Amino acid sequence: MGDLRNCRRCGKLFVYTGIPLCRQCIDEDEEIFERVKEYIESHPKCTTMEVAEALDIPMEKILQFLREGKLELSKENTNMLLGCERCGRPIPTGRYCSECASFIEKEFMKGLKRPGLPQRREKERMYTAHRRKKD
Ligand SMILES: [Zn+2]
Ligand SMILES: [Zn+2]
């Protein structure tokens, strides 16, 4: 038996294979991705907005490919650079520049080491709620 989940985009039930999207949505993405890739290869100086308009797809879609690191820009695609979500520095792919990425990772590790008192309370509360429901 496969692990059934709801597609993160269309909500349809599908067999989970490591990607939170159903086959149909993956295919759709794949098709759009190929078109975007082709377009920026033949128009290296284009902007994200131009690609979206030329291919009639939402700009968010292109940004998503870039953030996921799926779409990689060549050195010529300087008009399509993303901004780091923390400091705003232009980056070719992903969500953060390398400096911010290592900072965030360090902060995250610190967070993991903190004692989890509020977490335990949350668990107790859930347990009580569960009991009450049963009674
Ligand atoms: Zn779907
Ligand atoms: Zn940054």
Mean pLDDT: 85
Could you say which small molecules are bound to this protein?
zinc ion
Q: Give the N-to-C terminal Cα separation.
A: 33 Å
Figure out the total of helices: 5
Main pleated sheet: 2 strands, antiparallel
N-to-C order of helices and strands: EEHHHEEHH
Beta-strand share of residues: 5-15%
The strand line-up of the biggest sheet is 1-2
Global shape: flat
Count the strands? 4
> Structural class, from secondary structure content?
mainly alpha
Poorly predicted regions are none
What is the radius of gyration computed over CA atoms, rounded to a whole number of angstroms? 21 Å
Helical content class = 40-55%
Task: Give your account of this protein's structure.
- The chain has helices at 23-42, 48-55, 59-67, 98-113, 117-134; strands spanning 4-6, 13-15, 82-83, 90-91.
- With 135 residues, the protein is mainly alpha-helical.
- The chain has a domain at 4-96.
- The chain has a two-stranded antiparallel sheet with strand order 1-2. Strands 3-4 form a two-stranded antiparallel sheet.
- The protein is flat.
- It starts with a strand and ends with a helix.
- The model has no long low-confidence stretch (mean pLDDT 85).
- The chain binds zinc ion (ZN) (2 copies).
- The site of one zinc ion (ZN) has 8 residues, from helix 1.
- Residues 7, 9-10, 12, 21-22, 24-25 line the site of one zinc ion.
